[in-house]
Amino acid sequence: MKTANIVVHCQFKPAGILALLLATLAPVNSYSVEPAFDTQTVEWNFRVYLDDSEIGYHRFQLTDTKESQKLFTEADFRVKFLFLTAYKYQHKNVETWRNDCLQAIESETDINGESFAVRGLQKPNVFAFEGGELETVVSDCVNTFAYWNADFLDKSRLLNSQTGELMPITVEPLPEENITVRGVATTARKYRLLAEDLNLDLWYSEDDEWLGLESTTKSGRKLRYELI
Hints:
- The chain is an all-beta fold.
- Helix content is 2%, strand content 56%.
- It has a domain at 18-169.
- The chain contains 1 helix and 15 strands.
- The strands form 2 sheets. A 13-stranded antiparallel beta sheet has the order 8-7-6-5-4-3-2-1-15-14-13-12-11. The protein has a two-stranded antiparallel sheet with strand order 9-10.
- It is globular.
């Protein structure tokens, strides 16, 4: 599978699917490329909806050099009920990548006042976490839910950037679909990714650019990302 020149992630775990989705996602909407000293910076912004209600955003910035990539991710979701905030999710994440393998991660997540933190570093043959009770991962190439790089669909296990858990996944190719991307009808390749309570659909262009994400929560509501 061709490697896209972009990066992302999504995970989040409130009532199930919502959590895992947010910790690792990226967009393909308006982006800017600013070459400087062999460095490119790409940005994506997703508007996030729960059914037809806008609940927040998920933003990504990827800085790519010849030797490594650094991804900055920020998400903020707030679900309102009447005049009250019934659900709040905030996530910040910084990842360093080299040769399509995660080298370091530092994330902070707040779900309705409950805090999570993950800090890890790739060492010889293991990915080691700092502090807490997370188990060291025996591997020389760990991947997160890097939606920005379509090659992640070939993996069998992915690291949840919110919890530090290494999760088994399965990916099923689906028939191509016509979807609207930034107001333009686009033919896209579709995949379904399954992991524990996570069940989501992903769309990619012929050039492996990530175009969209959609999932159904346990309560039957639709969570979707819209490129802006």
